[in-house]
Design goal:
mainly beta; six-stranded mixed β-sheet; elongated
Amino acid sequence: MTNTQTAKKVYVTDNQAQWIVFEEEMQSGFQYKLATIDDLHDYVAGTGEIFEHHIETAEGVVEWCTQEFPKWSDEEYICEYRVIN
C-alpha cells in the first residue's frame, strides 16, 4: 500500500518567475490552481528537474516512473509521472 499522507500538493501560478510551487511557497497576489500531470511534464521538459516524492495533482497522487524496454523494442525507455492513488 502506498502512503499518500506524505504527498505534497503542487500548484501552477500566473507568476512568471516561479510558475510551479508547493503550498508552503505560495504568495499573495498570484492566482493558483492544482497542477496537472501535463503541468509536471512541462516542468520537467523546461527545467530537467523531477520531484522524487509523491505529488498531489488534479488527477490524484502521482510519482515519477521510469521504465526501460529490451534493446529490440521500438522504444528505449519511458519516464513520466503516473497516478498511484
